[in-house]
Amino acid sequence: MSDAEPPLAGACVIVTGASSGIGLAMLRVFVARGSRVVAADIAGDRLAAATVEGEWTPVVADVSQAGGAAAIVNAAVKAYGTPRVLLNNAGILDRLLQVDETPDEIYDRVMAVNLKGPFMLARQVLPLMRQAGQGVIINTASIAGIQGGRAGAAYTISKHGVVGLTKSIAAAYGEFGIRCMAIAPGAVNTNIPHGGEDSPHGLVLGGRAGASRVGRKVEPEEIAELAYFLASPAGSALSGSLALADRGWLAL
Question: Which residues are catalytic?
Fold first, then answer.
């Protein structure tokens, strides 16, 4: 049995949307393996209530605001040094509204959190990662970023944009030792009602037959383990790619 230190032990990691669901699972997985994590969320009460053993720092911030993105990255640098990994996980749903049903305020908010937020956080960390000659950015996308019939219009548009952002970063920054991937969850067992604005991954399995053939929802911890693999040296061959984490839902 190997006593080798985990590959990201001591690394500075940023997780957004860290107070629940996939983000909280990411926080726990990375901290448990010795990473030093800045956990960011707009829900300060839930973040304060999170029980996680290890070295981590909570930051209450709105990722959709430039000041929020800057505050998160500045807190990471101050606490733990240059970020080695950025997990852009924060996101919201859109009540499953289609184009002719979606008011401006919902469209604007979904786009601001789901797409502008990851863009601004990446913009903050990329110069630091470039200077360090290494770094990994992992964006939480969705199977709604691949197909058009799995969610509402604003959410679907935003997640297609996240996939494009991922490819753009991978293409532009690979020569500087920086990798960027996206994870596309399907139905995830977040224990938050479908349609809730703080649950970006509560997509509903389509029909009883489809649900039976997929077998079960994916657990947040499974997504977190995938993120750890992608961020670690074991995933070093991967950049610009989209990892489907849907238990074969799109294959049905």
Answer: 155
